[in-house]
Amino acid sequence: MHFRLSIKAFSAIALLTAISFGTLHADVPSSPAELLKARRDHYNALGDANKAIRDLSRDRNPDFAAIEKAAQRVVDASINQSKWFPKGTGPEAGKTRALPDIWAKPAEFEAAQKMFADRAPALLAAAQAKDVRALQNALRDVGASCKNCHDQFRAPE
Ligand code: HEC
Fold first, then answer.
1. pLDDT confidence of residue 17
2. Distance from CA of residue 66 to its chain's centroid?
3. Does 37 sit in the ligand 1 pocket, CB within 6 Å?
4. What's the whole-number mean pLDDT along residues 2-26?
5. How much of the chain exceeds pLDDT 90, in percent?
6. 87 torsion bin: left (phi>0), alpha (psi -120 to 50), beta (else)
7. Ligand 1 touching residue 78 (CB < 6 A)
């Protein structure tokens, strides 16, 4: 008897949880917290793509098709990054390393984004040319643009 009741209670809770989750998502498809999480996912994917290029470029016989794919993802990120910082997605929206200066100093932040966007295409060009030396130079230049922004606009861990 007791056992059957608990099962009933349990399924009622599960159902309510499912309903409230569904409602939450339907009502606020892009809450500040969700946008913040999406931004962090984008950056982690960018970090993975950048690392893949670095690792693959060290092979004796680099897989340039795979490098090109990853370079395309880096270029895409450099184009899309401007959409990743809607107002209200700073520390007020949850756990983030994005510093308030991103919104307080928009011109400086745009300059940091532009440095990355200007340099990223060299990765793709080097991958397409199958030129390891050019790839290494592009990795260094792009890496410096990541660091330039992180130093100014990303909080330490
Ligand atoms: C214009 C600024 C800017 C540029 C350029 C930039 N980043 Fe970031 N990056 C950030 C900010 C801000 C965060 C923190 C986001 C957050 O926590 O909401 C971040 C987060 C990350 C993260 C997630 C790790 C963590 O816990 O914060 C990785 C990985 C990362 N960046 C890698 C890169 C790489 C690799 C590049 C260059 C190819 C790059 N970033 C270029 C600003 C930038």
1. 47
2. 20
3. no
4. 50
5. 80
6. beta
7. no
Nearest residue CA, atom 22 of ligand 1? 43
Q: Does residue 3 come out as left (phi exceeding 0), alpha (psi in the -120 to 50 range) or beta?
A: alpha
In 3D, which of 3, 90, 78 has the Cα closest to residue 43?
A: 78
**Residue 77, ligand 1, Cβ within 6 A:** no
Q: How far is the CA of 70 from the centre of ligand 1 (A)?
A: 16
Phi, psi torsion values for 155, nearest 5 degrees: -70, 150
pLDDT at 62 > cutoff 50: yes
Alpha-carbon distances, residue 60 vs 57, 63, 111, 141, 154 (angstroms): 8, 9, 37, 22, 35
Q: What distance in Å separates the CA atoms of residue 116 and residue 94, rounded to the nearest whole number?
A: 26
